[in-house]
Amino acid sequence: MLTYMSLRIALLGLLDATGPASGYDLAKSFERSLNHVWQAGHTQIYPELVKMAADGLVAVESEGARGRKLYAITPEGASRLRSWLVEREPTSAPRSEAALQAFLLPLLDRESAIVVVERIRAQFAERLAVLECKPRDTSRFGRYALRLGLAQGHASLAWADETLAELRGPDAAAVDDAVGRD
Amino acid sequence: MLTYMSLRIALLGLLDATGPASGYDLAKSFERSLNHVWQAGHTQIYPELVKMAADGLVAVESEGARGRKLYAITPEGASRLRSWLVEREPTSAPRSEAALQAFLLPLLDRESAIVVVERIRAQFAERLAVLECKPRDTSRFGRYALRLGLAQGHASLAWADETLAELRGPDAAAVDDAVGRD
DNA sequence: GCTGCCATGTAAACCGTTACATGATTGG
DNA sequence: CCAATCATGTAACGGTTTACATGGCAGC
Q1: What is the pTM of this model?
Q2: Chain A CB contacts of B111 below 8 Å
Q3: Residue A116: closest CA among A94, A100, A95, A130
């Protein structure tokens, strides 16, 4: 019955933190700063802003060129945002294709398993690289989530390296050392 | 256009690994072994099995008492499963309410932030405790995913502890400043 | 004039959750 | 006999993705 409305919260959070913004701006913000935490495209954002305006959580502050509409958070919206943050017990619905592949690894022969783990590792590494490019100090907003992402990313990479070492076996250890990781 | 069909893969994986099973059995398996990797309830599983049978990926092997239907994976299904595992580049669509709360922490005053992080920490700890209860050696199936979950869980807990220390610690003034600014 | 980005939206299809619904069997 | 568990399903709703669609403005 309960709808979680996390998309609303994310939008309210961005509006509260960075001031009035258009749907377009918010979509960009999702791409830039929130993509490792929550995802949403403009096709989800535009209708949601309309509904949120109807519910009094945001208001159109001004309309600019090219039909650009600037939304601002209302006191009601700011209040709801803080209530959610303090009261909401976070739920986790893990759905990770990488973890699913890891789960099913024993179905494969050793060679194939190594290929799969290498690909998973590459993806973890890429994700981590993206996070490590982000400024850690300048934007204070989102820095806790950034650190959480970094911690999880490093742990995931370490898992991939351990798993590869195990799959390649003790004989391969010497080769590993000589060639280096990755 | 492409649907990822990860639910199908998960079902095929379980059928391949543990032999023929009913929808009910599969729902239990999800709860028991796959819940930290992929989630699905019986209302999703039953219709999906019917569609998979129509597509020739599984077949009803026998019907037992109480209308119990035993599904078995077909050679076609096993082949598709392995192709997916070897070829599929895993995609991640992160949607974590805990991370969202972490992201928005700077909106709160120090006291509230501590309460929120404590709750997040408790949930990470609970998740980890569940994983640590699972047998690590007996069932080799799923053990790689289990280790991945443990690694990520420990990293998440460490993040919570560090964050709490920072929020409570002598640097806490910096957080207050950050909240006050802008 | 063309390319690319700004800026907004709608509609259909798909995936997942919640609620509803039914009946058989086992153990106390 | 009653409760719990086994066992299967359907329907409605809501959230997400993909595809479609439009037009303004800026720089080359």
Answers
A1: 0.90
A2: none
A3: A100
